[in-house]
Amino acid sequence: MDVSVDAAGKNFTYTVNSKYSMALQVATKKGTDAAVIKYLNDNKDNEAAIRDFADFVYKYLTTAGMGAEAESSNNVFTVDKGYYLIAEKTPGNKQDTYSLVMLNTLGNDSITINTKESTPTLEKKIKEKNDSTGKETDWQDGADYDLGDVIPFKLTGTVSSRIANYTTYYYAFHDKMSAGLTFNDTSVEVTIDGTKIDKSKYSVKTEGLTDGCTFEVVFDDLKKAGVALTGNSKVVVEYKATLNEKAVLGSVGNPNDAKLEYNNNPYYEGNGKPENPGETPWDGVIVFTYKLVANKVDQNGASVNGAGFTLYKYNEEIKDYKKVGEEIKGTDDKPVTKFEFSYLDAGKYKLVESTVPAGYSAAPDLVFEVRATYTADMGATGAKPTLTALEIIDEDGNTISGEDKVFTTNLEKGSAETDVVNKSGKTLPTTGGMGTTIFYVVGSILVLGAAILLITKKRMSAR
Fold first, then answer.
1. Closest CA to 85 of 109, 108, 69, 72
2. Are 159 and 235 contacting, i.e. CB atoms less than 8 angstroms apart?
3. Residue 288, φ and ψ in degrees, nearest 5
4. What is the pTM of this model?
5. Whether residue 391 is found in the same domain as residue 462
6. Segment 136-145, tens digit of pLDDT
7. Which of 99, 255, 374, 377 is the most exposed place for a label (fewest CB within 10 A)?
8. pLDDT in tens, 224-252
9. CB of 407 within 8 A of CB of 368?
10. Which domain holds residue 384?
């Protein structure tokens, strides 16, 4: 609308630009320009009404092919005073959505416009489960797992608060996994505001992806998912992946990142992905995994070949120790004195010398617990947890890792290393032990037997 000012600069008069008269009358359902002006004045503080008015007028004008009065140069307009509808042509960044601004320049020589953005968000989380205690955490940013463990992940996306103004709403989760994680595409489940969504409403894509992602969960139009969307709606994707032998040990860990791609233009009426969709920043979690190293040595610290070790982990579900993989054993052709058990997580373990080298006595079983420390929940920082401590605890709760202790640990490598000592020869009972008691008892029996025999012989001689 145009504005005219009297000579004194005190009285202002609005008139409707004849070019847009029909559009404004249809938008306000008023039959005259005067009624249109009154409607806008009456609703000047009604944000929802003015937003709906702006949306309708913009769609009306663009559908009719009516061009703009002016376009900005470096985001600056030079125009006469008036009441304007300003449309954002290019969002400020990938997160932003296209915005409309109703602007009254009356009484101002210059005005700075700050658009109101309604941008979706994405949050990625993981759960941690300790097999030895049976405890499972809530959703968080970090976890540690064993080889072959099935790991739960969750993506939570929000929608534009102006979702009602969108004709169609393209919505796609992009997920990028490390090589050490194997995606299970049949595990994907989607809910919107707690309602499970039929798999026919979205697609899970794993091929033909060009942005380095492992998979995408794509809604060509979220508004057709079968759930009434509101500005507070949440779309949740849960899925599983398995830790494999490409997993990175130690502090580097195995990151898993995700982002959300969405229709950022409420005036887009096409099908599927718009030309320049909006994107959230990447958000991620991390999976840590570790290794145990056992060095086989004799009492002098020299390496010993011919041993075999089997590792067991306590499992709360079965209330017993469960074998971790197979025995690691050296041979004459392929001697092994350093035994590495990789891709372990926190928990209670038992290391057993299951094959004893010839000429040596067996080492006692070594029972211990692995404890890892990292920040489980990083909040809204967007950062991933870092591994800050790796400790080994004995059965009495004492720390047995560190300088001059049973184990040495290395955070970067994610390793806990120890020497397992074999003593040569068969171990005989030592003085002061049970063996001595047995010798004393047997000796006493022999002495008593000899005395009885002597007395008997004397009696026989007397006869």
1. 69
2. yes
3. -100, 155
4. 0.79
5. no
6. 999 999 999 9
7. 377
8. 999 999 999 999 999 999 999 999 999 99
9. yes
10. 290-422
